[in-house]
Every structure is written in structure tokens, then in C-alpha cells.
Design goal:
- The complex is a heterodimer of chains A (about 575) and B (about 500).
- Chain A has about 575 residues and is an alpha+beta fold.
- In chain A, the strands form 7 sheets. In chain A, strands 4, 7, 10, 11, 12, 13, 16 and 17 form an 8-stranded mixed sheet that branches.
- In chain A, helix 4 (about 115-130) packs antiparallel against helix 8, helix 5 packs across helix 6 and helix 9 packs across helix 11.
- The longest helix of chain A has 16 residues, at about 115-130.
- Chain B is an alpha+beta fold and about 500 residues long.
- Chain B contains 21 helices and 19 strands.
- Chain B has helices at about 20-30, 40-45, 50-60, 80-85, 90-100, 105-110, 115-130, 150, 155-160, 170-180, 195-200, 215-220, 250-260, 275-280, 310-320, 340-345, 355-365, 405-420, 460-465, 480-490, 500-505, and strands spanning about 5, 15, 35, 65-75, 105, 140, 180-195, 210, 230, 265, 275, 300, 350, 370-380, 390-400, 425-430, 435-445, 450-460, 475-480.
- In chain B, the strands form 6 sheets. Chain B has a 7-stranded mixed sheet with strand order 10-14-15-19-18-17-16, with helices on both faces. A 3-stranded antiparallel sheet of chain B has the order 3-7-4.
- Chain B starts with a strand and ends with a helix.
- Classes of the chains: A alpha+beta (about 575), B alpha+beta (about 500).
- At the A-B interface, helix 8, helix 9, helix 11, helix 12 and strand 22 of A face helix 13, strand 10, strand 11, strand 12 and strand 13 of B.
- Strand 22 (about 410) of chain A pairs antiparallel with strand 12 (about 300) of chain B, so a sheet runs across the interface.
Chain lengths: ~575, ~500
């Protein structure tokens, strides 16, 4: 879940009503945000991935104002026209690497002090959060904020030879060439693959040729550094996914809209020469909410006035439309794309209580799978035979695999620890660990477990088949081959099957005391006495015998089928 | 047949006495004076000493007899001491030899008189310390007129000890003990008397012969007929029994499944090693969703997957790309943007959500009504701690038919939590790419507080329509492992992966 730390003071400054900590807790529980910690002014929240707007003080203030009925409907985002010269041209050279760009200009409210500490801090923090989430660590999209007062339009987004690019990096004081920048700078080391290719790099320059930034890596200092008191800012995003680019700009606008900043478009001229007005990124979108879709989710008809009231509290603007409503959605709500998305807001803004639940009469017949019942019977039989039943993870250690040998068990590409790095293909792998972990207890020990294993299979869609095995172990002064062989016979006899044993060789078993049990030519079980070498390694002071029955194989042999 | 059981003094459960115990108790109760030492009881009861000793101890453990124990040190002449009393102590024999030899004795003559070297040197040492023997050789008496008896108190004390006299000189006794002529024994003298309970205990008819174990021979011969078996002290401690039973967590999962069966749910199943298609794509999870990364899901090495049926793949791809499904005119929604990548779809992954099982079920059975569930393992890249394990069980379920709404999903949450005895449930909004709306049920753990355990929602059209399902479907993937923690009172998720054989065989709730 995305997490970020907000300023409680800045949040409260954006609300018209006082809000106690307790009231905030309750309001957030009913939202998609949750308080993780609260220390002084620092309010750390987590949100569900679809409501990143709640991780900005601006976006959260919109939500809270609606939930407390302090303000309803679409938050106001004042639009001012831009001079026609405010354009951004996109050169065809960017298309292979990072084709999409979008930008708007935001202007501070008249009479104010311009960009203040809080707004600057929040916009930087929120920008980084957006990079990590929707931006997929800048790969899909990334943002930049630039001072309009220190740059000249029109802007140009292009890919240029490294040798022709020089700029002062945002965190530097000397002008450097792009070749040197990509060789030395830590941000370049991390993101160069996203903004450089074949001796070229992406650039965003202003009308004077000053480098605003090398997208998506770093801004330049001259025209790429927003400062306190700035009254007009360019908010732009580049990326490989157009929707992500639009979403990032729209979400960041919540920071400025909540503080009364106005917005103006920046027209984009595409490589083909077509020109878009640039206002689509901030103007409310219209999404249809048919009544039938809403009723299908709530299960009860809601009065039109109630639906409109709820949409208003969700900070949306509905207007009646044929068969439902056309709902205006602000740019910082990219999660609202389809009717069911809107229906969710209508339902959740009113809260969901357990007592609202109703039980649907059943029109189906419940049952367990026959194969599950078969495995359950086998477990029960093993319990009746005096075997304790451990419950062990499917993931086992590489060390155990090495110890047991003879395995085609799959390994993980990305294990989190050596302890859980192999997908067992036999219960034996887990059960050797059970023996090791129980050496402090007395003997005899008898345990058995029915559990899943994964074996390589060309037939399986994923290349690995899930099968169920019954593994059993006896460790005692007298444990031996005959004990487990008789038990295998018993288990098979319980389903009217007789097996033939034949000798096999297994690394984990004493030569001459290892066998497989065949039924109709199929290997259904393996068994034997565990090698003394392994017992000593495990710290087991008595002999141990093991058997493992392939219950999936046995079930297939029995010719019984499920249709799950 | 008389009742071999005696009522105990508190009128509670009967207490049994064996015939020897009864005889010994009778002897104690009838004794003219108390207390009695063991040998007195032997005499009074006519039983063997060992039998009396055992019976007395058992009567004591049953609180029918009390004992006063005195710990004594008892000295007596050792075998060597007794021999010395017969032939004379070495110093006495040395003096007599001196007298026979006219007051002078050489070492050779002492040997000839029957004194060993050891006896001679012991006698000379003692006689010189008593000032009876002059220094130098041959040995001579310092003064022949001395009163020898007075001057050999060891001889006197040894004789007195042999005669059973008491209050003897401790220092001389200790000296005799050092010379091996006297030995000490530490004895406990027990003096027995009946307790108040023992005095009051009503004894049944005497002479009843009680039998011990039921023997096979008795059964064959018919000797058991008419025989009365000696009752046991049923309160006595017994060996610690161990036993086996189903693993409590696995059994709990079975019970949970039974609840669902009772609500009309049919079980479904699916593989643990899935392709990304079934684990994510068919569920409308965007292909670049963070939960699909190598940091969140486990990827096996050395295997490759295969695509699903071509028509299903095409429909799912269309939903992801925001295109109309094949045969349709309008798209379901804008999709996720970007191109759907089939090479991602066939990548094998350890299943991270049992929702994949529901998707497989719907692909096979798109016709309503359906109610299915699956309780099975899932795997996610997690650090293992009290609340998280990289391997955990989910209970996946779906209900699909005309008229299914969010309220029915809430109703199922409430029904399930009530069925397993969890009284407190609260619900808040949530988010899953494949459901809209999405909710999450929280249950209260006695130690961990509110924990999220019941995520669910209504499947999005982008999930249902590519699968050919035309009715609303409520779906959930309950964190059944967390519910089990609440229901079984476990504070640590790792306790559910239990392989401690001591604990598993100990019994208990």
C-alpha cells in the first residue's frame, strides 16, 4: 500500500471546520486511507493504490470536506486562458524512447505570497510518491515543476546528441556537458536507460534554448528550479504511457487547486504538426452512471436526490442524463473511469455496515471435491495408525534439498531467504526438517502429513504440476523397512489396491533398503530406511524409516474424477 | 459377596485396602500400647517383615497410619571386635605373653606367642601410650604391679558394648571404631500408630480373599467366577499419556470448509504453480502492477508456461487494452493503456491469490447459478513475522447469479464470522483491480487488535465478460489463516505451521 507522511497542520489549514484526531480517525476508517502513525505534526497515511489523491494534503482536504458536508460537489479549479504562444512542441525524435508529454501552468491566487514553504514541500513529496507508484519509478511517467517567470515559451521536447547538450544540474552550480553528466551523476546512473539512447538524450528546452530538464532524470537549475515566492509554475510530465502522463499531472493539480491556484493550458504540437489545446488534462471528465448499474450493486433503489447527494459528498458533480447521471470527475480522480467505479463511490461514501448484509438463499448444492474427501480419508487413516500430523510449508531450504539429493525440485528465482527457496517435490524434504526440529523430544516419533508438492510437467500449463502426497516417518530404536512397507500396503489395501515392490536407489536411503511400490505399472509410492549420514546430520539418534504415497497418482489409478 | 471397598472417613469415594493392609491396620488398632515398631507389628499381625513394611507405607500414603521417625546411630562390635573379645585384644595378649616370658619379650618371641606383626605393633603403641611398656628392646613392663584391667579401658568398653550397656565413653568408642573393632550403623526407628482416619475406618468382613490382575489362565479355566478383584486407588498418579489426532489448524480449515458446504458452496481447486495469465491477467490486474513484480510474487526458474485457449487470451487482451471484445462493438472500459504482452501472460508464478481458482472455475462454468469456494495455499514475497508468512491459506469464494449485490457479500462475511465464533466485524472500503466496489472486513483479535481478514467485492465487467459470465459475481479471498489465528487464539501466524511433535501429541484444546 502506498504510504506517505503528511503535515497535520497544513491539512487542517485547508479545512474550514475544526477536526479532532478522533473524528479524523473515524472519517479515515470509512475512506480508502488509513493512519499508520501520528507523531506531532507528522501524519503517516497509507491508501489503497486507486486513491493516491488522499496522500496529498490538498486531495485529502477535498475528501474530508465532502465527508463532513462542509463542502460538496466538484472542487473549484479556476481556469485562465494562456497566451497562444504558450506552446510545447514535440519532436519526432522522442517517439522511440519516451513519446508522451503533457503540461499546464498554475498561477498563485492574486494578492497572496506566491509559492510558500508548505506548498513547495507538499508538491515535491507528492511528486516523488507519484513517481514511485503510477510512474513505475519514472519508467511509465515522471513529473517536473518549472518557474514560468524564468523561462520563455515556446518549449521544445526533443532527443539530442549528448555532445550538444549542456546545462547546470539542479543540485549543481557549474554547467556540465551531457556526456559528463551521464558519466558522473548518481541520478543519471539510476535513470539513464529511461532518458538516453544511442548517444542521444531527451531534453526539454525553453524558447531561448535553456535546458529545463533532461527527462525523466533531473531538472536544470536555471529554468528548472521552483523557488519560494514564484507565482506561476509549469507542471509537466513525460512518459511512455500516455494515460500515466495525464494522471500524474492531474493528481499533482490537487495540491495547487486546494490552495486556490488557477490553471491554464499549454498547447501541445505533436510531431505530425497537429495541435491540441492542452486543457484536457485538467478539465473535468464526464463519466456515465446508469441507474441500472448502481442498483445492481446496491441491491436497492436509491432516491435520485440521495444519489446526487452522495456523489456531491464524494466531490463529484452529477447531472441527470438519460437512464442515469452524467458525472463530472476532477483530474485528480483517475480511478473513476467506468460506471462501476462511480457506483462504488456512491456506495462507500455512505459507509458499509455489517448489519446491512443479507443472506442470499442458496440455489446450489454444496459439496467437497471427491478427491479432497479421498485425501481427508487418508489423513484420517494415518491418524488412526498413530501418526501425529504436522503442517509444513511447501517451500523448503536448499540445504535440505542438497541433503536429500535425487531431486528435480524447482527453485525460486527470487527467494527471500535460503530457508524458503525450493518448491518441494516430495514431502520427504519437509519431513527431514521435522525430524531435525524435534530431536529434543523423546522417541519413538511417528508423524505423517498429506500435502502438496510441485513436480515438473510438460503437461501443466505453468510447467509444474501440483500433486498431493502422503508422507510418513517412523523414528525409533526398531524402525525399519518392514514397518513402512506394511503401512504402505495397508494404505493401498484401504482402497482395494495391491502394489508390487521393487528395489530402487535413492541418495537419502540406505542401499538395498529402498523400494518403490508399483500399481498397474505406475509408481505409486517410495519407501526405505533413511541414510545414517543424514540422521547424524539432523541429530537424530535412532534409525528412521520413510514412505511417501502419491495420492494424486493413486486417485487417477482409481479412475475417479471430479469436475471442479 | 462382601463389598471389598471401605468408605473413607469423609464419606467420599471408597478406599480400598489389600488384605495385608487390613491385617496391619487391625494390628495397630488392637495394640495394647502405641506406638509400635515394625517388629512389634510383625509379631502382632503374624505377617512377614517385608509385607508389614510395605503395608505400613501404603497405609501411611492413604492417611490411615501415622509414623514417628527417629534417626539413630547404633554402635556394635564389628566381626573383628567380636573375635577380639573371644581371643583377647592384641594388647591383652601381648601383656599375657610378657608375663609368660618373665617380663621380657622380643619381637620373635611375640610372633612365637601368636601375635602377628600388625597386632604386635598395635599392642606396643597402645601399651606405650598407657605408660605400661618401657622404651627400648626387648619389650618390658614399666611396672609389673600395675592394675592392668584399669589400664586397658578399651577392653572394658568393648565388653560393655557387647553386653548392650549404654552411655559408654564416646572417645574410647571412637578409638575402637578407628581400629575396626566397633562399627556404627545409622538407623531410622519408625514407630507406628493408626491415624484418626485409620481408627474410624469401618473395616469390612475379614478373611475375604481379593485377587489382583485378571489373568488369561483364569479366564480359560473359569477361576474368575466368584473371585473378587482388589480395587485400585483410582486417585493414584498414572503415566502421562500421549496420543495423535488431526493437526488443529488443518482440522479447523476442514471445519471452515464444512460451513461453506452447508451454505451451498461447491469446492473448486487449481494449481499452486500458475501462469501470470490465470494469476493476474484474467483478473484484470494490469501487467505492470507492482504486486506482480519480482518483489511481490515468487518466480520459479527453469520452467516456461503455455498460453491459455486462444479465444480467451484474445478477450482478456482486449479488456486490458480497452478494446471491444471480439464480437462486441463497444469496449468495456478504457483498459490499462499500453499493449497487452503475451510473453508476460505465460510466465510461471507461484500463485499469489486463490482468486485464480475462481477464474478457472468461471472459465469452465460460466453459466449461473454458482457458489464455489477453495481453501488453499498462496505465496507472496513477505518478511516472516507474527502477522505475515510467505505461505498462507486463503479461502476464496464466489457467488454468481442474477440479483447478487454488495449486501449479499456483506451477508456472507457476517455469516462466516458468526459461524466460527467471531463476534466483532467491521467493514471499510478497499481496492482490488478485479472488484468494484471493493471492501475489507476487519475482525478483532484478542491481542493483535483489529486485523484485516475479509477482502472482497463484486467482480468488474472486465473480469466477467471475457470469461463469458453475464451475471454479477460477488467474490472474496478471505485471509483464513488470520481468521484461524483469532478462532484458535494464536498470536503468531508461524504457530499454524506446526511441526512440534511434543505439542502435537500432548493433547489439550
Amino acid at each position: 500500500m502506498p504510504v506517505s507522511t503528511l503535515s497535520a497542520e497544513r491539512l487542517r489549514s485547508l479545512l474550514t471546520l475544526p477536526l479532532s484526531d478522533l473524528a479524523l480517525d473515524d472519517l479515515l476508517f470509512a475512506s480508502k486511507a488509513e493512519i499508520e502513525t501520528r507523531e506531532g505534526d507528522a501524519l503517516t497515511l497509507s491508501v489503497t493504490p486507486d486513491r493516491l489523491d488522499l496522500l496529498s494534503e490538498g486531495g485529502l482536504s477535498f475528501y474530508l470536506a465532502g465527508a463532513t458536508d462542509a463542502a460538496t460537489g466538484l472542487p473549484r479549479l479556476h481556469e485562465v486562458p494562456n497566451p497562444p504562444s504558450r506552446t510545447l512542441s514535440v519532436d519526432a525524435s522522442v517517439v522511440p524512447l519516451r513519446p508522451y508529454i503533457s503540461a499546464v501552468v498554475v498561477n498563485a491566487p492574486a494578492g497572496g505570497t506566491g509559492l510558500d514553504d508548505g506548498t513547495l514541500a507538499e508538491s515535491i513529496r507528492f511528486q516523488e510518491l507519484l513517481h514511485a507508484t503510477i510512474g513505475r519509478d519514472r519508467r511509465a511517467a515522471s513529473l517536473g515543476i518549472y518557474p514560468v517567470e524564468r523561462l520563455e515559451f515556446p518549449l521544445r521536447y526533443a532527443s539530442e546528441p549528448l555532445s550538444e547538450v549542456r546545462f547546470v544540474p539542479l543540485d549543481g552550480s557549474e554547467e556540465v556537458g551531457a556526456e559528463q553528466f551521464f558519466a558522473d551523476h548518481p541520478m543519471a546512473a539510476r535513470y539513464s536507460a529511461l532518458g538516453r539512447s544511442d548517444g542521444h538524450c531527451l531534453t526539454l528546452r525553453d524558447g531561448n534554448g535553456i535546458v529545463l530538464s533532461l527527462p525523466p532524470i533531473l531538472n536544470g537549475r536555471t529554468a528548472g528550479e521552483a523557488r519560494l515566492g514564484d507565482r506561476s509554475l509549469l507542471v509537466g510530465a513525460t512518459g511512455t504511457r500516455e494515460r500515466a502522463v495525464q494522471e500524474l499531472v492531474g493528481l499533482l493539480l490537487a495540491v495547487f487547486a486546494a490552495r486556490g491556484w488557477s490553471v491554464a493550458p499549454v498547447a501541445v504540437v505533436s510531431p505530425g504538426g497537429s495541435r491540441s489545446a492542452g486543457n484536457g488534462v485538467y478539465q473535468p471528465r464526464s463519466v456515465l452512471l446508469p441507474s441500472a448499474v448502481l442498483r445492481g450493486i446496491t441491491g436497492e433503489p436509491l432516491a435520485p436526490a440521495e444519489i446526487e447527494r452522495r456523489l456531491g459528498r464524494a466531490r463529484l458533480a452529477p447531472r441527470p442524463h438519460s437512464g442515469g447521471w452524467m458525472v463530472e470527475v476532477p483530474p485528480w480522480r483517475p480511478d473513476l473511469l467506468t460506471p462501476v467505479d462511480l457506483a462504488e463511490d456512491v456506495v462507500l461514501i455512505a459507509g458499509v455496515r455489517p448489519q446491512d448484509g443479507i443472506l442470499l438463499p442458496s440455489r446450489t448444492r454444496g459439496r467437497r471435491l471427491a478427491e479432497t474427501r479421498f485425501r481427508r480419508r487418508m489423513r484420517s487413516t494415518l491418524t488412526g495408525l498413530g501418526f501425529a500430523e504436522p503442517h509444513t510449508p511447501l517451500l523448503v531450504s536448499a540445504e535440505t534439498l542438497e541433503r536429500a539429493g535425487d531431486s528435480g525440485a524447482l527453485r525460486l528465482r527470487n527467494p527471500v531467504s535460503a530457508e524458503f527457496s525450493v518448491l518441494r517435490d516430495r514431502m520427504l524434504l519437509s519431513h527431514l526438517d521435522v525430524l531435525r526440529r524435534n530431536t529434543r523430544h523423546g522417541y519413538p516419533q511417528r508423524f505423517a502429513e498429506v500435502g502438496p508438492v510441485i513436480v515438473r510437467s510438460d503437461q501443466a500449463e505453468s510447467g509444474g504440476e501440483t500433486r498431493y502426497h502422503a508422507g510418513l516417518v517412523i523414528a525409533s530404536e526398531t524402525a525399519g523397512f518392514a514397518d513402512v512397507a506394511s503401512l504402505v500396503d495397508y494404505l493401498l489395501r484401504s482402497v482395494d489396491v495391491v502394489a508390487v515392490r521393487e528395489p530402487i536407489e535413492r541418495t537419502a536411503l540406505i542401499p538395498g533398503r529402498a523400494a518403490r511400490a508399483r500399481v498397474a505399472g505406475e509408481s505409486i509410492a517410495e519407501l526405505g530406511e533413511i541414510q545414517p549420514r543424514i540422521l547424524v546430520e539432523l541429530g537424530v539418534p535412532v534409525p528412521a524409516a520413510w514412505a511417501e504415497v502419491d495420492l494424486t497418482g493413486l486417485w487417477t489409478l482409481l479412475g475417479r474424477h471430479d469436475s471442479p | 459377596m462382601s463389598d471389598p471397598l471401605e468408605e473413607n472417613s469423609e464419606g467420599g469415594a471408597p478406599i480400598s485396602l489389600s488384605p495385608p493392609e487390613r491385617a496391619v491396620l487391625v494390628a495397630l488398632r488392637n495394640a495394647p500400647s502405641l506406638p509400635l515398631e515394625e517388629e512389634d507389628v510383625v509379631r502382632e499381625s503374624g505377617l512377614a517383615a517385608d509385607t508389614v513394611r510395605g503395608s505400613l507405607q501404603r497405609l501411611r500414603s492413604k492417611h490411615f497410619a501415622v509414623v514417628d521417625e527417629e534417626h539413630l546411630t547404633v554402635r556394635s562390635p564389628s566381626p573383628r571386635g567380636r573375635s577380639a573379645l573371644e581371643v583377647g585384644l592384641p594388647e591383652r595378649r601381648f601383656l599375657e605373653a610378657l608375663r609368660r616370658r618373665g617380663g621380657s619379650l622380643s619381637s620373635e618371641e611375640a610372633t612365637a606367642e601368636g601375635l602377628s606383626d600388625e597386632e604386635r605393633s598395635a599392642a606396643v603403641g597402645i601399651l606405650r601410650r598407657r605408660q605400661l611398656l618401657a622404651d627400648g628392646f626387648p619389650f618390658r613392663l614399666r611396672s609389673p604391679k600395675d592394675d592392668e584391667d584399669r589400664l586397658l579401658p578399651e577392653e572394658v568398653v568393648l565388653k560393655q558394648l557387647a553386653n548392650g550397656e549404654e552411655d559408654l565413653d564416646e572417645a574410647i568408642l571412637a578409638a575402637l571404631e578407628r581400629r575396626g573393632l566397633v562399627r556404627s550403623e545409622h538407623r531410622t526407628v519408625r514407630r507406628w500408630a493408626p491415624s484418626e482416619e485409620g481408627r474410624r475406618l469401618p473395616l469390612s468382613a475379614e478373611g475375604q480373599e481379593l485377587s489382583g490382575a485378571v489373568s488369561p489362565a483364569d479366564l480359560v479355566s473359569g477361576a474368575w467366577k466368584g473371585r473378587t478383584y482388589r480395587p485400585y486407588d483410582v486417585r493414584a498418579p498414572v503415566p502421562y499419556a500421549r496420543g495423535v489426532r488431526e493437526n488443529p489448524y488443518v482440522a479447523w480449515l476442514d471445519e471452515f470448509a464444512d460451513i461453506l458446504v452447508g451454505l451451498g458452496f461447491e469446492e473448486a481447486t487449481g494449481p499452486l504453480l500458475e501462469t501470470e495469465f490465470w494469476n493476474n491477467d484474467v483478473l484484470f490486474m494490469p501487467q505492470d502492477h507492482p504486486a506482480r513484480s519480482i518483489h511481490d510474487a515468487f518466480w520459479p526458474e527453469g520452467v516456461t508456461g503455455r498460453p491459455p485457449a486462444a479465444d480467451l487470451l484474445a478477450r482478456v487482451a482486449a479488456a486490458h487494452e480497452g478494446r471491444a471484445l471480439p464480437g462486441e462493438t463497444a469496449p468495456l472500459g478504457p483498459g490499462w493503456g499500453g499493449r497487452y504482452d503475451e510473453t508476460v501472460a505465460i510466465r510461471p508464478v507461484l500463485r499469489s491469490q486463490t482468486t485464480a481458482v475462481s477464474a478457472r472455475y468461471l472459465a469452465r462454468h460460466p453459466t449461473p447459478p454458482f457458489r464455489t469456494f477453495s481453501i488453499d495455499r498462496n505465496f507472496r514475497v513477505e518478511s516472516v513475522d507474527a502477522r505475515h508468512h510467505l505461505e498462507f491459506q486463503q479461502c476464496e469464494g464466489i457467488v454468481g447469479e442474477e440479483g447478487v449485490t454488495l449486501r449479499h457479500l456483506v451477508g456472507i462475511f457476517r455469516e462466516l464470522t458468526e459461524a466460527i465464533g467471531i463476534p466483532e466485524l467491521k467493514i471499510r472500503p478497499s481496492y482490488f483491480p478485479f472488484t468494484e466496489p471493493s471492501i475489507e472486513g476487519y475482525v478483532r483479535h484478542p491481542r493483535l487488535g483489529w486485523i484485516e481478514a475479509l477482502p472482497g467485492g463484486l467482480f468488474r465487467p472486465e473480469v466477467l465478460q471475457p470469461l463469458g459470465v453475464e451475471v454479477p459475481v460477488a467474490a472474496w479471498g478471505i485471509g483464513v489463516t488470520r481468521l484461524a489465528m483469532v478462532a484458535l487464539g494464536k498470536g503468531d501466524i508461524r504457530e499454524l505451521f506446526s511441526d512440534d511433535l511434543d505439542e502435537l501429541t500432548r493433547g489439550g484444546a
